[in-house]
Specification:
The protein is of the alpha+beta class. The chain has four helices and seven strands.
């Protein structure tokens, strides 16, 4: 697992620049840090990575229809919701209908995704919300990635080469093609862990 700082230094080395002890050490290392951050967002959004998947427990209260999925943010993906108390699946629906349905209800004041349940719970239930939670917007030097680092590092390097121009090494087009290859390979490997998500059936 690579840290944010290690990724920045790997790119600086590839650009024939000196390594830094902190991302904030120079204006150029800050720029590379922003490119790494952009690459992380791009790679995390490309697939629902196994390493980002987690279950969040939401406890209902009587007469409250809407619930925030704490710390999920607004870049998370909900796979399913399970009523753990009654031991049944809660189905996604966009309008009110029979019991045991949920829909999206915007964001709470913390920026976390909210879901609304139908019908309104008449008691306390423990819900398990399975999500893919993406990284926060700001990363510290020692933070590590939960996703494969090579696509992130390669994409950030491609961005740096494009911003800098020819550096005597790889062209921006070649660097981007290499990054795309690393990303597609990483997705293919991770997708094999969830084959049920790649099977589509006609209704």
């Amino acid at each position: 697992m690579k840290t944010y700082l290690q990724l920045v230094n790997n790119i600086l080395i590839r650009l024939r620049e000196r390594e830094v002890t902190s991302i904030d050490e120079s204006s150029y290392s800050k720029l590379i840090g922003l490119m790494v951050h952009d690459a992380i967002e791009s790679v995390e959004s490309a697939w629902n990575w196994s390493s980002l998947r987690q279950a969040v427990i939401v406890t209902t209260t009587a007469s409250a229809p809407s619930y925030a999925i704490t710390s999920a943010g607004d870049h998370s993906t909900i796979f399913n919701v399970i009523n753990d108390t009654s031991n049944n699946w809660i189905t996604y629906k966009t309008t009110e209908c029979t019991p045991a349905y949920y829909t999206f209800d915007g964001l709470d004041s913390n920026g976390d995704t909210k879901i609304k349940l139908y019908p309104v719970p008449d008691g306390v239930f423990s819900l398990v919300v399975n999500i893919a939670k993406r990284s926060p917007n700001i990363l510290a030097d020692a933070d590590t990635l939960d996703i494969p680092f090579l696509p992130v590092q390669s994409l950030a390097y491609a961005m740096a080469v494009e911003e800098r121009g020819e550096d005597g090494g790889m062209s921006p087009v070649s660097a981007k093609a290499l990054a795309d290859n690393f990303l597609s390979n990483a997705i293919a490997i991770d997708a094999s862990k969830h084959p049920e998500e790649l099977i589509w059936e006609a209704p």
